[in-house]
Task: inverse folding
């Protein structure tokens, strides 16, 4: 077994090296030449973020948020006239309005940092692929990733992220990234990422730090990007880079959907904000003082229809950013009065709780799922092969 894993790992590495070598040969250049090509100077800037330049036109054609009561001042609204990414400079100063307040001083440093820059909504785009959304696309798969997780992206490309057509329905895949959060990783990994993008052409990258609290920033950047570039995308799957996904099952599920404003996933109703400081999802009262969150789908993987993604973009610009990205989307859905649909084929919570659960290893279980959290690259490759071998399952699990 161990030997077998080693072989898989070796062949993954080897095939990546081959692809690199072939591309270099095809383009008639040396890797060094390629690396020297585009130094991402702006990226490496260590300067504090300054106020952003805005030249958007405000157009509030729809007024669906009127019911929602008082909302944050509309920072800026991406109008339909915008045809390309329109944020080109970082110009955003810390908001010092509440630094003297006691509630602020009592917060943990990461929350203070979040609040100081909460109003900085959009950053320049460093790697873009407008062509990804051209033509009729049935399902756009977008995966939250970080620069150092190259092996996860590689495994996804070989498994559920493969671009293909299912019954004539086009599936396209993109990875969503910010910049390396650790300074020492920035320069070298950035070059590797640019090279990876050169080979696969499936990276979107923006000029903000990839940190946990910036995941919401990634969410709103994707929604804005989608609004600008994606007019003919029927559905969007958005998820993490450490999950198992079955695009075939997702397409099968989507084919039966007739309702507009579809948003489906592993939905939590009446989840309580976590008040224990040790927890990764801890939220102080000063940031959220209600007892429950609106219904929201786990960010590990969910699907929504394209038109709804555009509405979510508009609403997201009316709300203040919230540090937990999936809860933030739940807040946006609440404003739109759209209730997310809970579907048993999405397992983004809970599966880690029971390490011995059958779910962790059973291919017949995975075969019937849409999304399962969580699998590391080798486990994903292994599971994918098992499912696509001549698997005989004693009984069909009634999930779909
Ligand atoms: C950044 O914003 C400040 C104040 O809003 C302005 O004075 C300055 O000119 C801006 N800088 C750039 C490069 O846009
Ligand atoms: C800080 O407060 C002033 C006055 O209330 C307001 O005009 C400004 O927009 C606030 N700054 C931010 C970044 O919210
Ligand atoms: C989010 O990214 C911005 C831009 O890189 C950075 O200034 C800010 O500190 C980050 N926020 C958090 C909470 O990490
Ligand atoms: C909760 O927060 C809102 C705004 O942040 C504030 O207006 C309200 O008074 C707070 N409620 C309680 C019970 O603290
Ligand atoms: C899988 O089944 C098909 C036909 O049922 C057979 O031709 C093929 O050899 C099998 N493949 C493996 C790997 O067992």
Result:
């Amino acid at each position: 077994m161990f030997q077998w894993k080693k072989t898989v790992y070796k062949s993954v590495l080897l095939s990546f090296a081959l692809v690199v070598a072939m591309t270099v040969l095809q383009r008639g250049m040396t890797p060094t030449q390629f690396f020297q090509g585009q130094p991402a100077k702006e990226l490496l800037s260590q300067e504090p973020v300054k106020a952003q330049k805005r030249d958007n036109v405000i157009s509030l054609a729809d007024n669906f948020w009127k019911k929602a009561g008082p909302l944050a001042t509309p920072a800026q609204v991406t109008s339909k006239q915008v045809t390309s990414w329109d944020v080109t400079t970082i110009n955003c100063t810390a908001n010092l309005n509440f630094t003297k307040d006691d509630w602020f001083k009592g917060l943990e440093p990461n929350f203070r940092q979040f609040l100081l820059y909460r109003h900085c909504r959009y950053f320049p785009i460093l790697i873009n692929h407008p062509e990804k959304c051209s033509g009729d696309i049935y399902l756009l798969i977008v995966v939250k990733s970080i620069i150092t997780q190259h092996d996860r992206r590689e495994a996804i490309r070989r498994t559920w992220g493969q671009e293909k057509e299912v019954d004539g329905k086009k599936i396209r895949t993109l990875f969503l990234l910010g910049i390396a959060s650790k300074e020492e990783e920035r320069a070298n990994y950035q070059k590797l990422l640019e090279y990876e993008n050169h080979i696969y052409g499936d990276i979107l990258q923006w000029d903000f730090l990839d940190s946990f609290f910036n995941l919401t920033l990634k969410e709103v950047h994707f929604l804005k990007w989608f609004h600008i570039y994606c007019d003919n995308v029927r559905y969007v799957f958005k998820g993490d880079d450490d999950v198992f996904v079955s695009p075939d099952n997702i397409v099968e599920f989507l084919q039966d959907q007739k309702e507009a404003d579809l948003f489906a996933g592993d939905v939590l109703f009446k989840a309580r904000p976590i008040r224990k400081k040790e927890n990764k999802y801890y939220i102080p009262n000063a940031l959220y003082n209600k007892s429950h969150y609106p219904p929201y789908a786990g960010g590990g993987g969910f699907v929504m229809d394209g038109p709804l993604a555009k509405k979510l973009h508009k609403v997201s610009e009316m709300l203040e950013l919230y540090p937990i990205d999936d809860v933030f989307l739940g807040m946006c859905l609440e404003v739109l009065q759209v209730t997310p649909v809970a579907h048993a084929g999405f397992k983004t919570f809970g599966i880690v709780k029971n390490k011995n659960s059958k779910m962790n290893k059973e291919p017949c279980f995975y075969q019937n799922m849409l999304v399962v959290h969580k699998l590391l690259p080798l486990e994903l490759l292994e599971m994918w092969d098992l499912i696509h071998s001549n698997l005989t399952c004693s009984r069909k699990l009634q999930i779909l």
Observations:
- The chain has two domains: 7-33, 47-69+86-347.
